Amino acid sequence: MFLSTIEILLIILICFGFSTLLVIVNYILSSKNNTEEKLSAYECGFEAFSDARKKFDIRFYIVAILFIMFDLEIIFLIPWTVNLSNLSLLAFQTMFIFIFLFFIGFLFEWKEEALDWVAISPQQSNKED
Amino acid sequence: MLLNYIIDIGLFLALLLVHILTLLITVAIFTLAERKILASIQRRTGPHIVGYWGLLQAFADAFKLLGKEIIFPSKANKFLFIIAPIISLSLALIAWTFIPLSTTAVLLQSSYSALIILGLSSLNVYSVILAGWSSNSKYAFLGACRSAAQMVSYEIAITTCLLPVFLLSGSLDLIEIVYAQQKMWYILPLLPISIVYFISIVAETNRTPFDLPEAEAELVAGFNTEYSAITFSLFFLGEYTSILLMSSTFTIFFLGGWIQPFSSSFFEAPLFWFAIKTIFISFLFIFIRGNLPRYRYDQLMFIGWKIFLPLTLAIFFFIATIMYFWGNLPTNTYFYSFNIS
Description:
The complex is a heterodimer of chains A (129) and B (341). Chain A is mostly helical. Helices cover 64% and strands 0% of the residues of chain A. Chain A contains 5 helices and no strands. The longest helix of chain A is centred in the N-terminal third of the chain and has 25 residues, at 5-29.
């Protein structure tokens, strides 16, 4: 058996095709009597007051940006990890310098409260408890 | 020559179909097992009418959902709305083709299969975001935002947890990672890491102590609020397939895959051992659902970013330093392919 692009393409095609087939079968089998109320967006039984695509919290953006940074860092670590037995001492130390710099960035994020979901000062959190 | 290719492709297609059907039946039985175990925890009997002891309940549900009406909300983006659940199930099915059940029982073999599985499981975020955004409903949108942030945060914890495994085995191939555990399963030297990994996979699949996206009291059902019939069950199947996928990755990375716990040639059944270990991990998924209350969202983010990430990185560099200076690192073949000097 040969592992090639054809097999990977076949797998992607078949898996997507199978899921799509289920949807098509359902569409053929099911009843279709839609009313306007049935098709409206779910909102506690009322008419929707406003459009759903409105402003949302900036913290979701911050999480996404942090994710990109940390994910890049970890991807950078993977080849180093797998090859560690072949690396010279210089290569070993270089990664520690990189991680140290990254650690300073991490401390900065921590101090700027980018990692906190809700910004609570210590006194307030004590009161809550 | 051409005939051989056609036969090969035909065989492969047959294997693939068997693979998908087996997987879906496993998922069906797993959902039934979840209902039964939860029922036992709450001292109920669970489903017991359909088939013997309710064995056919999951299939009855699936066929019932096939006959229900698909609802496209009038304000939704129809194409994205329908493509999101399809992505959800397909990605989990594709990722399963790389999982080695034993040395020979693997559909696709690659020397980077661990990376591929990580990548495919992180692509699941897209289905969540597309579903939440396209259904144009507030609950769905908020649920999708939360879910995406949570999955993305724990993606990092998961990848960091796997770094020590790659270090100790010196390979990104799942089969070689299992072979490296012949002497000792990684759960012993990497016990703290494996605990963090387990918590992270529970959070990654949006399961119960961390099921904030579908906190019923706040956001009706999270990102799949507007979904009905088969589109809903595709999300459902996708979620449970990825739970099984994550359990099997835990088995491979930390519990030694198909390697038996005692060294005896008397009971060499790789598939059996793999299944037992995976079932145990997926049982833990259900068990903690029955026992633990839900987390608060800021606590969830706190644990992911401020505890798991520094802790796992620190343990990783600790292990790396020890292994480097004691000279116990495994040699590998990646050196020449990466071309680093």
